[in-house]
Amino acid sequence: MQARKQQFKVGDKAVYPAKGVAEVVSIEEKDIAGNRLQFYVLRLLDTEHKIMV
Length: 53
What we know:
Blueprint: E1 13-16, E2 20-32, E3 35-44, E4 50-52
Antiparallel strand pairs: 1-2, 2-3, 3-4
């Protein structure tokens, strides 16, 4: 996996289009189709739902 500069860190807030403000709760790596990818796990502040992006 090629190293990338992280734009966000845990605790940062961001706007997720059509869903509202979210907080970065973790940064995780997952194996998908043989590739190791990094995802931000966001928690929507209004609903407490979690989204991986």
